[in-house]
Amino acid sequence: YVNRLGRWISLQSVRPDLPWSFAVLDDPGYNAFATPGGFIFVTKGLIDQLTDESELAGILAHEITHVVNKHHLKAMQKTARAGLLGKVVASQLKNDIVGGFSSQLLNLGKELYSKGLDQEDELEADRNGVSLATRAGFEPYGLVAVLQQLRGTTPDNPLFALTFSTHPSPQVRLDQIEQAMGQRLDAFTGKSVTIAQRLSRAGNR
């Protein structure tokens, strides 16, 4: 389900030809990672916290924007680690794409992003991600709902620790999105579909 959803959104991006692949990591933390080349991972803990499909679409669009704009690649190049880490990711994905490597990928993601990207990269991914999710046919306020949820979470909650340490504060992100969007996307709002509903429909096919 997540792979189908992510692939559809990625097709609306300016780099639809990348070998996009999306997967869920069996981890209770609230996290999402992107790697250069189009590999995007979300944790089960994140999925469990979401109820609306547009929220998940907003998160995936945010991560897709990181890939499209090469944010992580540029960050890794700055630390001269791109070659080694790229080989590790490629080797794991090639040799065991359906096996039990989620813990290794999660550790790699934590290593890659424990320091986080530049704040402007994150804010750009928010702004462009909202537009991308809307272009793909989802509620434009999905990511806004996620950030509002994060705003009500204490930063010392261990399940959210990595998200808080690698991103600007939820309020700063909300302010930036509001400034960029205004009311221009209100016309694209409509009835939301919950993740449970979508999974149920998929299971009945």
Summarize the structure.
With 205 residues, the protein is mainly α.
Written account of the structure:
- This protein is mostly helical and 205 residues long.
- It has eleven helices and three strands, in the order αβββαααααααααα.
- The protein has helices at 2-11, 44-49, 53-68, 71-78, 82-95, 102-113, 119-135, 142-151, 161-166, 170-181, 195-203, and strands at 21-25, 32-35, 39-43.
- Strands 1-3-2 form a three-stranded mixed beta sheet, with helices on both faces.
- β2 and β3 (39-43) form a beta hairpin.
- α1 (2-11) packs across α3 and α3 (53-68) packs across α8 (142-151).
- The longest helix has 17 residues, at 119-135.
- It is globular and about 35 Å long.
Give the rounded overall mean pLDDT.
79
Please report the total strand number as a whole number: 3
Describe the sheet with the most strands. 3 strands, mixed
Given as residue ranges, the uncertain stretches (5+ residues, pLDDT < 50) are: none
% residues in beta strands: 5-15%
Q: Give the overall shape, derived from the CA principal axes.
A: globular
Q: Strand order of the main beta sheet, please?
A: 1-3-2
